[in-house]
Amino acid sequence: MKSSFVFILTFIVALMLEGLTFPAEFIWFRPEWALLVVLYWVIALPLRVGVGVAWFLGLLVDLLQGGVMGQHSLTYVLITFMCVVLYKRLRMYRRWQQALFVFLLVSINQLVGFWLDHYTGDAEPTLMIFMPAIVTALLWPWCFIILRSVRRIYSIR
């Protein structure tokens, strides 16, 4: 019961951070908070947080950002599936190696989002679409430390 509350609370905080508004010139530096939290919980506890949770959180992010419905759900499910398959290997990597993997996963998220936005006529081709992946990867070690501390404090297994 306590662990479910902690999961929900971390996802709520991630959604609140996802909903923060950025000035127009810094919009490309906006990290993918919800995906970052999902990645941590999938790597830490893949039997408790999986594809279903990622799908639901992706729907909430779609509602929050007002984009194409199902865009984040699709990418979150694909990314979560990759993490569930590779979670044992990911645990063995150092934090910087995990951050590189997070960069690749968030880049997939950004590419699918760009593709859908470009298809609907809302996006211009630019390499700046990878900036959120870079920022999210740089935040990974800090997010990992904070969420691992929360997990240890509340003895979540």
TrEMBL record:
Alphabetical keyword list: Cell inner membrane, Cell membrane, Cell shape, Membrane, Transmembrane, Transmembrane helix
Superkingdom classification of source: Bacteria
Subcellular location: Cell inner membrane; Cell membrane
Membrane topology reported for the UniProt record: Multi-pass membrane protein
Main localization (coarse): membrane
Keyword flag Iron-sulfur: no
InterPro entries on file: Cell_shape_determining_MreD, MreD_proteobac
Sequence intervals crossing the membrane: 6-28, 35-57, 69-87, 99-116, 128-147
Function text: Involved in formation of the rod shape of the cell. May also contribute to regulation of formation of penicillin-binding proteins.
Assigned protein family: Belongs to the MreD family.
Protein's UniProt name: Rod shape-determining protein MreD
Organism for this UniProt entry: Rhodanobacter aciditrophus
Gene field: mreD
